Amino acid sequence: MTVLNPLLPQVAKIVKIKAETPTIKTYRVVMPDGSKPFEHIPGQCAMISVPPVGEALFSITSSPTQEEYMEFSIVKTGSVTNFLHEVEEGFEIGIRGPYGNGFPLESFKGKDILFIGGGIGLAPLRSLINYCLDKREEFGKIDIVYGARTPDDMIQKDEIFKIWPEAPDTEVHLTVDTEWEGWEGRVGFVPQCVEEICFSPENRIAVTCGPPIMIKFVLQGLDRLGFTPEQIVTTLELRMKCGVGKCGRCNIGDKYVCKDGPVFTYAQLLNMPPEY
Amino acid sequence: MKKINKEKLPALWERLADEAALYLPVEEDGVVNFAPWKEGAAVNLDVINTMVPPKHLVFPQSENYLRFHVEGSKLEIEPLDVDGPYVVFGARPCDVAGIAIIDKLFLDEPCDTLYKERRDNGTIISLGCNEPEETCFCTSFDLEPGFSPDADISTWDLGEYLLWEPRNEKGQALTAKLDDLLEAADSGAAQAVEKLRQDAASREAAVVREHGWEVQGVKEALEDKFDSEIWDEIYRRCLGCGVCTYLCPTCHCFDVQDYSKGQEGLRFRCWDSCMFGDFTLMAHGENPRPTQKERVRQRFMHKLLYYPSNFEVYACVGCGRCVRKCPVSIDITQVIKAAGGVE
Predict the structure, then answer these.
(1) Given a cut of 60, is residue B343 above it in pLDDT?
(2) Predicted ipTM beyond 0.90
(3) Closest CB from A11, A80, A275 relative to B77
(4) Considering CB atoms only, which of B66, B112, B282 is closest to A239?
(5) Which of A31, B28, B240, B316 is the most buried (most CB within 10 A)?
(6) A55 and B CB contact within 8 Å
(7) What is the pLDDT of residue B133?
(8) CB B34 within 8 A of CB B95
(9) Which CATH number describes the domain made up of A10-99?
C-alpha cells in the first residue's frame, strides 16, 4: 500500500459561499466528483490551501452526519483568509485532513450538553451540535448559549434563530455584548449569561469555544456553578503548518494541538503549561 | 570486519559517487561541511564537528514537495519526486544519533513519507571519534563518541587504515559492491575498535566531569520548572538569531511556504526556528510566546523535557555546536545545571 505524503492536499471545490457577517463567510466544499472530501468526527480540522498564498487550518463546522459536503466558517483575518474572502463559488482549493482528536463523543452519551460559544467560536461547536441533534436519542437535554458583539456578528442565523430552538429538548440562549437597536433578547457577555441561567452540573457536560478572554471567564463561572474540570471541554487553536505533529509550533508542553488536541478537557489543560 | 588503506579512500569515494550522490566532510575556505564529493575535493576526516551537521541530507533546509498550477478558479496539484540514492560518508556518532532522534518524530504515525522516502534512499557511514573536542558532551546523553549504533556502516580511524563494519542489510549491500577495495581486517581489529571506543569515551567523560556536564535527571528536574526564575536570566541576552536551531542535529521545526511565478508555483518546506517571534504568531495577532523568554524556554524544554516525554530520548546529542556558535554564549550545559539536572 502506498502511504500518501500527509502534506499533500487534494483538489476540492467551493460550491457555495454564504456571507454570515461582514467578516465571516461559510464555505461549502466538495471534491471534483461532487463527493464529501473525507469523513471526520466533530471537533476535527482540515488544512485548506490557496496556492500561492498558502495554507491554514480550520475547524470543520459541518456535522459528520452531513454526507454530501463539508463546511468551514472563516473569519477574514490573515493572508489565506483575506484571499478566501475574495473568491467566488466554483473556486478550487487544496484540502487535507482530517486533523486532531475531535470531541470525546462516547463520554458525552446519555448526558445533558451545554454548549457555550462566542463569535466565530460557534464554528467547531456547530459540528457537534448538529451531530447531537441528528442523533438526538443518544444525548440528554441540549442547551446552547451563544453570544456575539452585536446581532449582526452572529453566525449561522438560520440555525440559531429557527432550527435549533425547534429541535426536541433543546434550548437556545442568545446574548449580545451591548444594547442594540431591534434586539429584544439578552444583553451581556456570554460568561455572565451562563451564570445567570445557573446551569446545574448534574449529569452535564459543558463544551465551550470562543475568544480566550471569554473562555477564561466561562471557566471561572462554570467552576462557581460546581462543574468539575473533567466536565468542561474546550477546543483550542494555535498557529499550525503541518497538522500532523511534525512542524513543531503548536505544542503546549509535550502536547501538540494539531494532533493531541484541539479538543481538551479543562482537567487536561490544568496539567499543561499555560502557553496558549 | 573489513578494512581499507586510507590511500585507497579516493578510489572508494569515486566508486561510491558512481553508485549514488556522495556527501562527505569537505574543507572550503577553512570551513568543513558535508558537501558533494568531486575529484580533488579537500576531504577532511580529522575535524570532529563539521560547522553544520549532516542533518540537511535527510531533512533538507529547503525542500520543494509539490507543484501547482492555478488558472482562474482551476487548481492542479502534483507531488514532486524525492531525490535518488545517496551516501553520507564520515558522519560522526553524535550527528548520526541526531538523525536517529528525528527519525522518531518523522516516522511516527502519521508517517512523514517525504522524510521517509529520502531517509530510505540514504546510506550512512559513520566515523568514530578518537578524540573529543573541548565542547563535546555526547557521553552526557549516553552516546558513545567512538561508536554509532544507528549508522548503516561503522568505520574507525586506526591511522594507516579505516576499519569498516556493515551494521545492517543496507550496509552489507553497499559493502558487497566495494569488495575489491576492502580487505579482510586483521584478527586484532575487534580489540582495536574496543580500545578506541573505550579510550574515546573515557577521554570525553573526563572532559564532561571537569566541566560538570553530567545530565542525570534533567528531564525530571525540569518537570516543575516551567514557571521557574531560571528562564528570567537565561533569555535576557538572547538575540533570537536562531543559529542554535540551525546548527542543531536534532532541531526539526519547519515552515511551509508557496513560491509562484505566474500561474505555476511550488510549495516547499524549510527549516524554521522557535527562536523567531513569528514562529507562533497567529493571524489575528495573538502570540502564545510573545517574548524571547517564552521562546528560549520552549527550546530547552522541548529538547530536555517535551521530546523525551514523547519519544523517550533527549533531543540533544551533546555535539556542542550551539555552545560554540551562540553569539552571546548561551550554553545548554549551564541551563542543565541551573535546572538542577546535575547530581
Answers:
(1) no
(2) yes
(3) A11
(4) B282
(5) B316
(6) yes
(7) 87
(8) no
(9) 2.40.30.10
